[in-house]
Design a protein that fits this description.
Length: 335
């Protein structure tokens, strides 16, 4: 019997499923298939394998559920941070969950991406623990049972299945594992670079306020649309709200040397602003700064806020910037 299969145990199954539900890159599906095959061969108990898998799901999902109740938006931003458009990821998740409710948990584990954000969304949107656990348990049972059942059906050809699973596991590691490892290493390097980038780029709210009052040429860019749903959130006077994805689509952005750009998001977490600053630097724009503490720091100091944004075309003209193709205006907040 294949070494890989013979060393599958209940604790290993639990750890694999638990880690997978915590969004760690563990091939839990292969472990479930193997557990089902061993159950069919009489080496493990089918119900035992299913219960262990469901327990691993519930415990990990409960962690995300509680995190969503305590720090909902921050957790969602963390889970969506590496996607191409984090704001779309968050908005889309909210829309789908608002439409389907906890019933979404019944199928979420079969849908990559949706599985990860459903538990924190349920916590953030006020679902009860009992209802969450019930729906999540049913969804986990359907998901785990499907893969365990597939392994169980091939129990009569255990050795052949074992060899196939090992071959598949090796192929998955080579085809997907290595590129994923490279991807995560690149993302980690990007994060380290952004942290280093932040140190000299931060500007304190007090300094920004005084320099704006003195009439210096500053362009203030509000990134709340990128960070989260910005409805009802006031802005720094003179700011324009831009979609950072637009920056990547521009063929040409030229900012005069005497013009400073300041980016801000809502909180002190400058990860969003740092990503945008890096994108701007790729366009050769060096005079970019990030508001330390974000909009929350500005508000704590009692500095003025407005319900109206500056017109993007007027701001581009005032600052003498050249942008091609022109930026799309985002509707101003309603007074």
């Amino acid at each position: 019997m294949n070494y890989y299969l013979t060393h599958i145990t209940y604790p290993i199954l639990f750890v694999a499923v638990f880690a997978r539900q915590l969004s760690l890159p563990v091939p839990a599906l292969l472990f479930l298939l193997s557990g089902g095959a061993l159950a069919g061969a009489g080496k493990l108990n089918f119900i035992g394998v299913l219960l262990v898998a469901v327990l691993g799901c519930l415990l990990a999902d409960q962690v995300w559920f509680e995190a969503g109740r305590l720090r909902g938006k921050r957790v969602l931003r963390l889970l969506c941070a590496l996607t191409r458009d984090p704001s779309f990821c968050i908005r889309r998740g909210k829309e789908v969950f608002a439409k389907k409710g906890l019933r979404l948990l019944l199928i979420a584990k079969f849908v990559p991406g949706l599985d990860g954000i459903c538990p924190p969304l349920a916590g953030m949107l006020g679902a009860s623990r009992g209802a969450f656990l019930l729906h999540d348990a049913v969804g986990a049972s359907l998901w785990a049972g499907a893969y365990i059942g597939c392994g169980f059906l091939f129990a009569q050809q255990l050795n052949k299945v074992a060899q196939s699973i090992s071959a598949v596991a090796t192929a998955v590691v080579l085809i997907f594992g290595v590129p994923l490892l490279i991807f995560f290493v690149l993302k980690l390097a990007q994060l380290v670079l952004m942290i280093r980038l932040l140190r000299p780029l931060k500007i304190r709210p007090e300094l920004l306020k005084s320099r704006l009052d003195s009439g210096e040429k500053f362009g203030v860019i509000d990134l709340l649309r990128f960070e989260e749903d910005p409805e009802g959130v006031a802005a720094i006077p003179g700011a324009v709200r831009l979609d950072p994805l637009e920056i990547r689509r521009k063929k040409r952005i030229v900012v005069p040397e005497d013009v400073n750009l300041v980016l801000y998001c809502r909180s002190g977490n400058s990860f969003v602003s740092a990503r945008v600053a890096m994108a701007m630097r790729k366009h050769g724009i060096r005079n970019v700064q990030i508001l330390e503490g974000g909009l929350e720091a500005w508000k704590r100091l009692g500095f003025p806020l407005t319900e109206q944004f500056a017109d993007i075309e007027a701001e581009v003209a005032r600052l003498g910037m050249e942008v091609s193709p022109p930026w799309k205006s985002i509707p101003a907040l309603k007074p």
